[in-house]
């Protein structure tokens, strides 16, 4: 079952974020707290949204996303920040179902894009996305400022 996340799901979503960070070989990067995630998803001004895949009362996976905007298309889109299905639930259709739910939201709201990033070495995910018809944006390189470089630029 795919459903919107509730406040009761926050601790389990955060646990899966940690599992995702382990899988991506950067556990030290996962520093979010339950309070931060709760505020981002359910606070006064939510900045993000989440859907979960649930099986027999257990969360099998999640998709965490936020709205983007295309100046070229003139409308919103969805940027998928994280898609994660626990290893014991992979192959059960949960990843596809989570993406299908986001695609449905795009179509219903007339959003024109569903986008995300994937690590170059994550061959299983890349194969899965290509099978869905997603195309890589190879000509684009993602840049990021964090920590000290971010603070230095702000000064």
From TrEMBL:
Gene3D superfamilies: 3.40.630.30
Every N-acetyltransferase domain range: 1-155
GO molecular function, one term: N-acetyltransferase activity
Superkingdom field: Bacteria
Keywords: Acyltransferase, Transferase
InterPro entries from the UniProt entry: Acyl_CoA_acyltransferase (IPR016181), Diverse_Substrate_AcTransf (IPR051016), GNAT_dom (IPR000182)
Sequence similarity: Belongs to the acetyltransferase family.
Protein name per the record: GNAT superfamily N-acetyltransferase
Gene source species: Nonomuraea endophytica
